[in-house]
Write a structure and sequence with these properties.
2 copies of one chain form a homodimer. The first copy, chain A, has about 300 residues and is of the alpha+beta class. Chain A has 8 helices and 12 strands. In chain A, helix 1 packs parallel to helix 3, helix 2 packs parallel to helix 3 and helix 2 runs parallel beside helix 4. The radius of gyration of chain A is 21 Å and the shape is globular.
């Protein structure tokens, strides 16, 4: 099959898959036509999943779709926004991504999108040279608050909270099934005026540091308060590795002491959020264990070890 | 440099480059915050440029940037929409895309965006395995008409018009510098109510066929009326090759005879548009030369011949 034919065939498959879409504008047209509801504020984010970088070589299409959508929507969750419209791109060599593979990918992506009630309004598919990795990208538009919480508002005395469980997301395979915390993000923004909020994609140490830098503050995190995904007995060295893996796709939020108190008094707040430390003056991120300082503790930056088949 | 460090470095570079952006929402946050003007209708499109597929291996970063933006905005032109906000992704191996390469790419992209007065509001950069092609994607939001002209409204007797010059865009290198016909598209939509409009990316024969299929009509195109980019004496076989190359990134529009007449009476309309044929009943696309039928003429599907270095 010639390059042009292959590409044409991919385009047709892709277009057929979009028959289900609920955005305005027919499939096959140059653009999707979107009518934002009155006075809405749109939040836009874009993310990628690359074979051999974010997922193993030979990852099944449904796993690709799930990770791509999950990590993209996690950014919207961090802004307290609700997913509204998606577009995506596929770049894949004909050898990996035959007709059946692409169909499974498109169907899985549409099903994932459906589960978040978000419309897939557009896409582009390109062939790639032989041996190239599959590269997917997804741009999401969400509807959300007039001002996103951002990262620059943390103050000394504020409390640091996270959703879900942290650590070991890559080694356990949890990174392949991110659960974007859309409800938690939107609810926190509505009820608690967070001073900062973001999602945890590069690991607690790296991501929290971004808030600290933007806010020009320091923080103390207590290992004993972290809701570990792996609840077995682990050494501190093991915890340093687990934390460094990143890809938790949980939310990290900074709240005033008062907002924290009222959040954790509610049933839903207590279920969704755990307080793991606090913002302090200065610029340092310090680690404690049950209140005792750990001057040498340092989460280990994760090295994806993905070998080509 | 480890994978994670490289990625981190790319992210920082990318973020720095976005200091110039005019969208709301600070660089480094999870999402861009966009406030669509009241009652606006947004047109969204997404496109890719892949090394070894759409451009040669080893293409300079500024050429990548120009082609990416040009072909993406060409889709907005076809909808009669004005560019408003862009996001983009870069996936590139560290070997090809060192710090300096990425900086040149980002700067070129921002300069191109500036030249179209469109804001770059977000982006994502990922490393890629060694030997992988550079893969770029761009999602553009435009503001435009409530209803895009689409492809399904062509009627027998309608006239077929194009902007600019056609043919030989790939072999001449013109495909690397698309000139999205934004003014022409918006003006035509405002003044002439086109029955169909699209941009020419896959070649006149392939693209026109999409309008014919959507509208369930046929067409006659006269080679003698086509505004050829290559104005020298060419055989019909050469013209068949030139047309098949595609990537003209000109607009193709279908207008009522009356709208065509009034368009071509104006100075600007006459400068921008050329009538090359007409819609007929039936389903066939027929080719003429100065009125004489060419039953065997067929544009040759182009095969990108891009070899790996």
């Amino acid at each position: 099959m010639s390059g042009k034919d292959a590409e044409q065939q991919l385009h047709e498959l892709f277009r057929d898959a979009f028959r289900q879409r609920r955005g305005v504008g027919g499939p096959g047209d140059d653009c999707a036509v979107l009518r934002p509801p009155k006075a809405s504020v749109l939040h836009q984010t874009v993310d990628q999943v690359v074979e051999g970088v974010h997922v193993e070589w030979g990852t099944p299409p449904a796993v690709f779709a799930r990770k791509l959508l999950g990590r993209t929507l996690s950014d919207l969750a961090a802004a307290g926004a609700r997913p509204w419209a998606l577009s995506w791109t596929i770049c894949a060599p004909a050898k990996t991504a035959g007709h059946a593979w692409l169909k499974r990918l498109a169907n899985a992506f549409l099903a994932e999108a459906e589960s978040y009630s978000v419309s897939v309004v557009g896409g582009d598919v390109s062939s790639a040279p032989d041996g190239a990795p599959v590269v997917l990208s997804c741009t999401a538009l969400g509807q959300g608050p007039k001002i996103a919480p951002g990262r620059g508002g943390a103050l000394p005395g504020d409390q640091i909270l996270v959703t879900g469980k942290l650590g070991g997301a890559v080694s356990s395979g949890r990174h392949l099934r991110p659960q974007p915390r859309l409800d938690q993000g939107a609810r926190l923004l509505r009820d608690c005026r967070p001073h900062a909020m973001m999602d945890l994609s590069d690991g607690l140490a790296v991501d929290l540091q971004r808030i600290l830098s933007a806010s020009q503050v320091g923080a103390q995190i207590d290992l004993a308060r972290i809701p570990w995904a792996n609840q077995g007995q682990q050494t501190r060295a093991q915890r340093a590795i687990e934390l460094g893996e990143g890809e938790d796709y949980e939310l990290l939020a900074v709240l005033s002491p008062r907002a924290t108190q009222s959040l954790l008094k509610t049933r839903v707040g207590k279920r969704d959020w755990t307080c793991i430390g606090e913002i302090v003056a200065g610029r340092r991120l310090s680690w404690l264990d049950a209140g005792a300082k750990l001057p040498r503790f340092k989460p280990q930056p994760w090295q994806h070890k993905l070998t080509r088949p």
